[in-house]
Amino acid sequence: MRKGIFRQQQQQQHGKYPEGAINHDDLAEAKERSAGMMTFVAAKPDFGVDVMIRGSVAVQGTAVMIEERLSELTKHMSFSLVSSYGLLSDLRTQMDLLARKVATIGTTFATALNQASTSNSNVTATFHPVLLSLTRLQTLQVDELPPILAEIEKLVKLSIKLELQDSFKTLQSTVQLMVGAVVQLTAAVIDNPVSIDVSIVNMVARVASMLRANTVPLNYTIASTGENIRAADAFLGRLSRSVQTTTTTVGNDFTSFMDDVEQLQDTTLQALGCTKQEISGLGASVEPLVAILCAGSGPCDIRTTVTKILQLQSDDQDEVALTVREQFSKLTPYKTILTSVASVTFSRAYELGLYLADVTAMKGPYGLYCLNKYASVVEQLLPRIRDGLIVCYRQEHTRLRTLRTSLLNMYATFVYDFEDLFDQLQLGTAESGNFSFLTAMNGLYTQLVEQMKKKLELMKSFLVAETTSSARRLLLCGTEASLAVANDRAQLWSEIGECRQKGPSYNVPMMEV
């Protein structure tokens, strides 16, 4: 301005401008000065003041980060469960409810603080939403969170509740600091809107940053709990499917075993039928010889005895065949028994899985570690039962096949005995009129009848004894497999509990040895 006046004076002295004429240089300078004043008036409003306040940008940036951090809380529980375990479902529900309540009110505060940092409204419209949301954050921890924490404690004892309480305690103190800082800023705006103490704005920014930092433990607790729930749920889903599949497979394995037994029965009956036909053929060959021997007028008991032998072979062989069918069919009901035993054992193994899921969901310091360590060990209990039963089925099938061989070998001796007597009859036809010879031959055939009766009874008794033993061994095998798993289950239960309390150790799980 002084430069312009000096220039005007010079110009007047030299007569360049007449007095009262427009000085264009002064006009340009006035325009520049006017433009500067307009820039000051149009400055970005902060906290309801029509001037730019230093530090407001930091407050706004921190508010945005608080909103981002709190909005993450609801994402940690946004997943579906595959298992039907109520504890995991209920825990997820309560944690999701807690996360949504905190996130809703917290993001409301962050949004209000963000808007206040650029507000051009009056003091009430600028700061009332901020203070209202802070008040709601305070009452949230007093009125709404305790019932949720109580439900969480019912589900998983104290561990998660204590973590949450510690996080909320820290947040509560920070919220109180934030209330004080906002109140001071409000008072400063009311007292002297033209000159706001920068230290007050910086204090709001610092407390906001502290609030954002103090949401980290809460975020971690909710995120890690969600991770534990998902891991436990996935484990139980696998275990449940394995229980269903293995239960069905155990039944199918027994059906396959009985198919083999039925095939064994059919081949046994077929072999007995062939032997019966062979003896019948020998009987037909004997008949002409008996006719020659009994050609005389005297009594001929040998004919009656030979008839008894043939009848005995027919009737008693049918009895043996019937016994084979009856005894083999008595194994069929053991499918239900063994499947039931396996099912009960599977249920107990699943209970162990639930306990491991509980340990994981409780989120102790080693919950997820224990799950990773023992999940596969628990899952291995199921195929162990099935494998044990399969071994039993194979062993019993081998024993029954040996039984069939023994029966057929015993029955073959009838043919050998009959063939020997047939040879003697051929030689004896030359003595057809010799009464003493016929008497001796009849005596031999009578002894053969008694021997055959004893052999047939022995065969039936042997058959009953062996098949009964097979049934008992099958039942014993299922019981032993169940007891073995029960013992392992008890030991694993103890190890999981110890793992939960003490964490990593150098002890290798027993199933991995």
Model description:
The protein is mostly helical and 513 residues long. The chain has three domains: 40 residues, no CATH class; 180 residues, no CATH class; 238 residues, no CATH class. The chain is built from twelve helices and no strands. Helix 4 packs antiparallel against helix 5. The chain is rod-shaped. The relative contact order is 0.08. The N terminus is likely disordered.
Offer a concise description of the structure:
Helix content is 83%, strand content 0%. With 513 residues, it is an all-alpha fold.
Give structural attributes:
513 residues, 83% helix, disordered N terminus, mainly alpha
User: Total number of helical segments?
Assistant: 12
Count all strands and give the number. 0
Number of domains as seen in the coordinates? 3
Q: What general form does the structure show?
A: rod-shaped
Largest sheet: none
Q: What separation lies between the terminal Cα atoms?
A: 96 Å
Give the helices and strands as they follow along the chain.
HHHHHHHHHHHH
Radius of gyration: 50 Å
| Relative helix content | over 70%
What structural class do the secondary elements suggest? mainly alpha
The low-pLDDT segments are 1-24, 26-43
